[in-house]
Write a structure and sequence with these properties.
Elements lengths: L3 H29 L4 H24 L7 H29 L4 H24 L6
Helix pairs in contact: 1-2, 1-4, 2-3, 3-4
Length: about 130
Amino acid sequence: MIKKEHVSQVFRFAVVGGTVMVFNVGLVWLFSRWLGRQASFLLAYPPTLAMHFSLNKWWTFGCRRTDTARQITEYLVMVVVTFIIQWVVFTALGAWTSLPAWVCAGAAIAAQMAVTFVMMRQRVFAGVRA
């Protein structure tokens, strides 16, 4: 049976994801006007991550625990995994299609969202394990 709390978390995660995606795609679009595709993608990534962590910690998962150092460490491990997913999709679309950089970035973000949600829910913002 699906719990109401899980449905609410998925909804909030989707809102955060959409907001972060628009922010990231906007930055990639802005930076790609002056820089190359790859540089604009890399430059937009750090501020996007900070926004993503904060909104998910406090709003999506309602996490008020103070073990933020552990959460950030686990978040960064998750980021490496999901970054590889994003990078592969972004690079492949850029190489194999004529889509603009901002469309490739949006597709790459969408490709890694499910993995991110599961990892955040099960590990990063889950209760402290013994």
